[in-house]
């Protein structure tokens, strides 16, 4: 079967969109984790912290942050991803250590924060019912 050359020509743009969506999802999960933490640990302040207006502001902020981080990685640090001809696996155009490890550290940080917040939330729930 033949592969469309157009896919490869546009792959850097698709890479930007895909990684932006990934960053936005990471921030969304972080916000959900913070939401749970506040609901369990600060129930009297929950409705003020997560009011409709504040929640909308948080959503806008994590969209902006997700896109900004991706654009920063792609354009300023030159860690653009693309499909090399003849493959179906994205690769960094400039395979610098920062592209690999910087991306890993950024995303691992969000995962670690979510894990800690969720663990603290579960610990608080466990302590409440024991």
From TrEMBL:
Residues annotated as transmembrane: 14-34, 55-74, 100-120
G-protein coupled receptors family 1 profile domain segment(s): 27-130
UniProt cross-references to Gene3D superfamilies, sorted A to Z: Rhodopsin 7-helix transmembrane proteins
InterPro entries: 7TM_GPCR_serpentine_rcpt_Srx, GPCR_Rhodpsn_7TM
Assigned keywords, A-Z: Membrane, Transmembrane, Transmembrane helix
Subcellular location: Membrane
One GO term describing the cellular component: membrane
UniProt keyword Transmembrane helix present: yes
PANTHER family: G-PROTEIN COUPLED RECEPTORS FAMILY 1 PROFILE DOMAIN-CONTAINING PROTEIN (PTHR23017:SF44), SERPENTINE RECEPTOR, CLASS X (PTHR23017)
Official protein name in the record: G-protein coupled receptors family 1 profile domain-containing protein
Organism of origin: Pristionchus mayeri
